[in-house]
Amino acid sequence: MLTCERAVERLSLSLDGSLPLVEKAQLHLHLLACGHCRRFRRQVLVLDTAFRTDATGPVVPDDVRLPEDARQRITSELGRQVVDDS
């Protein structure tokens, strides 16, 4: 079984597509057993997507939804800042 430290190293190689099949299987098994590394992997994937996507593209997973009241507060605050800055 991989340690978390080794799993993190392998995660990076996995994203680059340069992880051998056996090590990919070991990483998969570790991720099944380790919630901390699964969470870290999700965070890395979000960051990877953000860096690979242009500024107008999505940077969060599709299953993450902002509540409507929060969306309205943010939109309102952004509108207020635009008016204040002009």
Quick synopsis:
This is Putative zinc-finger domain-containing protein. With 86 residues, the protein is mainly α.
- What is the radius of gyration? 19 Å
SSE arrangement, N to C? HHHH
Q: Decide which structural class fits the backbone.
A: mainly alpha
Low-confidence spans: none
What helical percentage do the residues reach?
over 70%
What does it look like?
- It comes from Fimbriiglobus ruber.
- The chain is mainly α and 86 residues long.
- It has four helices and no strands.
- The chain has helices at 4-16, 21-33, 35-52, 68-85.
- The longest helix is centred in the middle third of the chain and has 18 residues, at 35-52.
SSE inventory with pairings:
Elements: H1 4-16, H2 21-33, H3 35-52, H4 68-85
Helix pairs in contact: 1-2, 1-3, 2-3
What descriptors fit this protein?
Znf_put, mainly alpha, 86 residues, Putative zinc-finger domain-containing protein, single chain
